[in-house]
What we know:
Blueprint: E1 5-6, E2 13-14, H1 16-20, H2 25-43, H3 45-59, H4 68-108, H5 111-134, E3 146-152, H6 156-177, E4 180-188, E5 194-202, H7 206-210, E6 215-222, E7 231-242, E8 257-262, E9 278-283, E10 288-292, H8 298-329, E11 339-344, E12 350-353, E13 359-360, H9 363-367, H10 372-387
Parallel strand pairs: 6-11
Antiparallel strand pairs: 1-2, 3-5, 3-7, 4-5, 6-7, 8-9, 9-10, 11-12, 12-13
Amino acid sequence: MLAEVRDPMTSSVRVPFTDVAVIDPAEEIGELTGTLRGIQDVLDLDALRKQVVDLEAQAAAPDLWNDPEQAQKVTSRLSHLQSEINRVEGLARRLEDLPVLFELAAEEGDEDALAEAERELASLKSDVGALEVRTLLAGEYDSREALVTINSQAGGVDAADWAQMLLRMYLRWAERHGYSTEVYDTSYAEEAGIKSATFVIKTPYAYGTLRGEHGTHRLVRISPFDNQGRRQTSFAGVDVVPVVEQTDHIDINEDDLRVDVYRSSGPGGQGVNTTDSAVRITHIPTGIVVSCQNERSQLQNRASAMAVLSAKLLERKRQEEAAAMNELRGETTTSWGTQIRNYVLHPYQIVKDLRSGVEAGNPSAVLDGDLDEFIEGEIRWMRRQEAH
């Protein structure tokens, strides 16, 4: 039982510990438990466990690595499903333990223990919310890996520098989550930064997670390249498409391709290869141009460039089909290829998404890959748009 303390200034009686415990967490825990059960129903854990058993059998096959590409897909999918199941089961255990934490804190009158329990409740709200967003990724290609292209736009050397900052931001985001990435091509600008870069994020649901990043990103800052220290506005475009799989039917006529080979180069024109191994492919009917220079072999670069071209053509086909369907329905096509987010570093500091309204007052953290809040917000926003 908690000891009563008389306040000498007011002569009133109060219980110190209950003054701190201003909220009853039982209702919030109950709501979170209900949300998690709904998520479990959507994900169908029993079906996921059956897939894991099947993939484990494939992974144990002695000839698995005779086909390295297929082996990589099997092991990647297995790792993802195991992580997904562990994530849900871990949240369920934490929710079961949480009422006990609050109980013990109340019985012992321990304010530090109460604060710890409240922090765990806040953490669970965030983690369950993030998992709930995952269940919204139900589009045809959402489960695919993502191919991302960044291009500098208006703003001169500052825009090229901004494009490189965005490249680092997405690679850091992937690194934070343990996702494998591969940069296919980087075209460096003459003074600083990059003209463009193309890279792939190799994890299931990367496309569904990142497709809302497609659009123009705007940076406002004091230009480090202006000797008068003036404020500069720069723009860079981000393009996100799903990686093509064997089940996709993308026919590419060799006669429609113009293939150029050239020598790979690094920042400032520094050569990184002594042979003409880099490959640029132009798809003449559509005008789509892709290139790859990350491999030493011209054949490997060509294969990677063709994979990028296939992904671009698949996305073009998807957009044309969606536009045709919307026309039949009498609807206008929603485009996310406009300015989507502002990053302001001067005269104040804020990052704000123009669609979801999500904002953060620490641009440095965002540019270091802390993107989850923005990504979750845009996924929810897109689902609301698609539902209308």
